[in-house]
Amino acid sequence: MVGYLIRRIVAGISVLFMVTVATFTIFFLGPADPAAALCGSRNCSPERYMAIKRSLGLDQPKVEQFFSFLGGIFAGRTLQSGGFVKECPAPCFGYSFIQNRPVSVILAENLPVTVSIALGASVIMLTVGVLIGSYAAINRGTTIDKALVAMSLTLSSLPYYVLALLAFLVLAVQLQIFPRTGYHPLLGDGPFFLDLLKWVQGLLLAWLVLGLVMSTSYARFSRASMIEALGEDFVRTARAKGLSPRRVQFRHALRAALAPVVTIFGLDLAGLMGGTIFTERIFNLKGIGYMAVDAVFNLDLPIIMGTVLFASIVIVAMNIIVDVAYSLIDPRVRLG
Amino acid sequence: MSGTQEPFLCVEDLTVKFPTADGVVTAVNGLSYQLELGKTLGIVGESGSGKSVSSMAIMGLHDPRRTTISGSIRVQGTDLLGVDDERMRKFRGSVAAMIFQDPLTSLHPFFTVGDQIAEAYLAHHKASKREARERAIEMLDRVGIPQASRRVDDYPHQFSGGMRQRAMIAMALINNPQLLIADEPTTALDVTVQAQILDLLQDLQREYGSAIIIITHDLGVVAEMADDVLVMYAGRCVEYGPCKQILTHPEHPYTWGLLTSAPHLTGDPEQRLTPIKGTPPSLIHVPSGCPFHPRCPYMSQLPDDRCVETLPELRPGGQGGSHLVRCHLPNPDEIFVAEIQPRIG
Amino acid sequence: MAQPATSTTGVAASSTTPLLEVKDLVKHFPVRSAGLIRRVVGYVQAVDGVSFEVPPGQSLGLVGESGCGKSTTGRLITRLLDPTSGEIKFEGTDIATLSQKEMLPFRREIQIIFQDPYSSLNPRHTVGSIIATPLRVHNIVPKKQILSRVQELLEVVGLNPEHYNRYPGEFSGGQRQRIGIARALAVRPKLIVADEPVSALDVSIQAQVMNLLGDLQKEFGISFVFIAHDLAVVRHFCRQVAVMYLGKIVEIGDRDRVYEKPHHPYTQALLSAVPDVRQAQVGGRRERIRLFGDVPSPIDPPSGCRFRTRCWKAQDICATQEPPLQTLVNGHRVACHFAAAPTQEDVEASQSAAAAAAGGGSAQ
Question: Tell me: the pLDDT tens digits for C117-174?
Fold first, then answer.
């Protein structure tokens, strides 16, 4: 197990290295010029432009630039800009000269919002999706089953941003059912209970919309998976033993049906952690997705690159976690 | 209740239908048989003959929403088709238990063998987990798993094929059932392991005095295990009676076909096999009259398309006794002696 | 019945050069550790020094239980797997080490039929294109004649030649196996490796396919390596039979010798274990040789004789010395230190050994 983990982590790091190379190539060597962006369009004299370039290290050879970026992730680095010295402590994913802060600090500031959204939405999408899916599977072919499948198809065929926007306008603005959308830190200054309440209040609508929409694919997937599991020989054995239908369905069939769901969930969770652009924009939650969009508009390349790198770290980590989780669920899977 | 004298298991006019998009599949049609405690019935037939479906009906394992079952299945006088779900659940695994063809897929891959066996015990007994586990170890030991107290915590994939089937048998017998249904219990196993499992089943039957239904396509297995044999074709019983009589003096052309189509370990190895022509019929459009007529080489011996038009009754065979056969041929024993016997040595 | 078959294919030629000659064939699959560095910690000795010959127009049966290496042997002969060592001589040429490209002309001569008629045919291709593929690959007939050749082949295997446009899903199991046979026949091979060709089929269908294979052998003089676990099926089809256990041939010889006078305890146990219809005549189960335990792991097979851990005859020598395959009478070879025809004592000794082994298990 330990050997396996080390191997996977080494492999993961090499993937991340390649991602870094790729993003570095695209952003820093591509047509967009960060120095020009920083310099601004109005009073950018060639001297100022060159000064910025020099201070960013953009006049260095490309390979050197890359390695000083890479070194910054582990050791931090010191950048100079217009006479000011900017400290970018490890892990330095870059330094945003527009916000005048290291990217890692910006990420750390936005991360709690995104994690809050991801966790809440995951709970909803998993429970609602799996419950509806397995209920439909157990009642396969009945009207209830058909209605649930139709509902999930309808919900997932609507464009998400339309749905989310509508939900926000109707439920939050017009009917004021969810009046206070916005992020309130869970570990704020007030008493924990009050913080918790505000935290939930601010996120609930986003959780519901995102969770319910994503639950539709879980419902369909777990329905198919559950139907397959219910047809397995070992489920027949469980029934032949004289177990109660509930025990057959939940202990025997659902357990087998959930194993593939875990894989998909791991990857979806990684996706959510990387930022949910529509959700964060529409419900005014300043998470990583929100920040990334801002960065794109401002041509704040260090932030974009930091976000991409962060998202890939999450995906690589999630993949390893999924495999380990799978080996805990299914004793036949031996990590080795 | 009607019979204190009635046999332990009485299946009468059992019919099992599955409505499908293409039409109604009549998987079992008017099946009747009896079985006493301590005896073994072998049900023989090819895939789609209804042999497994009929036994699943005894266990109440068909989905009632997708199955229509009629007739009666009486165990000690109680008709199982009339009892409610909860009573049927209590019946399954305690009065009657079942083992299946593929022990690997029949065991849950995520739970230990001991856990699954103990679960069968707990489903019918008020006992602690520890007691159930002790009982599971005892049973594993009884069915010949070496170091049972250690192997009880293994997962099914850590067992060999033969050991998995032993574990299935342990699970089936943990509640000391009176009826054991074994559905192709050795088909997935190697021949030396098959011999071990068949030996084990016979030993256990002697010990517990239970009735066994063994479902198989292999007449050799039937010959070694069964007291009575029931041959099924297209959902119907075509021949039924004492094992010895059916295997030495069969009277139905389908049974003849089964005997002559399989190669043997003795006799002339160069002799050409006599296959049954054609393929088994669709259960949605079962042939008219005798369902075997399109594949029967003796159809022409009977006048006026009788085989195509009329379904033969299940009538007593020429040897008397309880041998029943569903065929129009007036002189089956003569044909058997003259044509079939020389070919099977 | 088979007499004419051998004579038509030329006994004169067959008596001198075998069509296929396998010598010391070995296939070891590496087993790797689970640690950080996945070093090779052992080998699955799937096939370990197997030798046999198949004369033209003849059949050799390979029998044994799962894991004995019979299927691996079949795949090695057809070079679907690469041998670890050993020779596979086809008409005198060693094909064991040929590259894929050099192998191409031999692929035409050596065909394989698989057990599962459901998964070995691509469901998205018509039967016609499945059978035509080898014709095209090997450029056997001009393009214009492909269809008529396909139809001819369908007819040979007993299918309706007009059904070339249908998909495998529209055929029953027995018919699909016929399609597999037609595909193998398309290139007019000299050798067919048949890997459990009838074990997935119902009894009545099994006989149809067996008869078809027999007819084809007589008509085209094809040699077969016939792999099956069913001893009766092998006896029916093959004049030469090799019994395998844990990657080795333990007994090989003429059908009549192997089945009538088996000299290896494992062969005796196998034959004794087969349930037989004729037992009903005497009633109940016959006294048989009983084996105890399971087949050991091929990763770490027992020293000396591999069968000794389950053998009622085993002595000290069996653990220290591997018994060589020794010739008893012409062509009948057995690998056992105590090779002898079975007796009633064997039955009793095996049963008490089995009982002792079972008792030993429950004592713990």
Answer: 778 888 899 999 999 998 888 888 888 888 999 999 998 888 888 888 999 888 888 8
What CATH code would you report for B1-95+177-345? 3.40.50.300
The structural domains of chain B, with segments of one domain joined by +, span: 1-95+177-345, 104-176
Q: Where in chain A is the domain with CATH 1.10.3720.10?
A: 107-329
How far is the alpha carbon of C151 from chain A, nearest alpha carbon, in Å? 40
Give the count of beta carbons closer than 10 Å to the beta carbon of residue A329: 14
CA distances from C244 to B337, C238, C267, C323 (A): 39, 15, 9, 14
- Give the largest Cα separation in chain A, rounded: 85
Cβ distance of C290 and B264 shorter than 8 Å: no
Q: What is the pLDDT of residues B158-195, one digit of tens each?
A: 998 889 999 999 999 999 999 999 999 998 888 888 98
Q: Give the residue ranges of chain A where pLDDT is below 70.
A: 28-34, 37-38, 40-43, 56, 80-84, 336
Cβ pair A136, A215 in contact under 8 A: no
Q: Which of C31, C33, C36 has the most A C-beta neighbours within 10 Å, making it the best mutation to test the interface with A?
A: C36
Contact of B194 with chain C, judged by CB distance below 8 Å, is answered with: yes
**Alpha-carbon distance C9 to B343, whole Å?**
29
CATH topology of domain A107-329: MetI-like fold (1.10.3720)
Contact partners for chain B, using 3 or more CB pairs closer than 8 A, are: A, C
Cα B145 to Cα B148, B173, C304: the distances in Å are 6, 14, 26
Residue of B nearest to C228 (CA): B190
Q: Is the pTM of this model over 0.80?
A: yes
Tell me if chain C has a CB within 8 Å of the CB of B274.
yes
CB contact under 8 A, A331 and B100: no
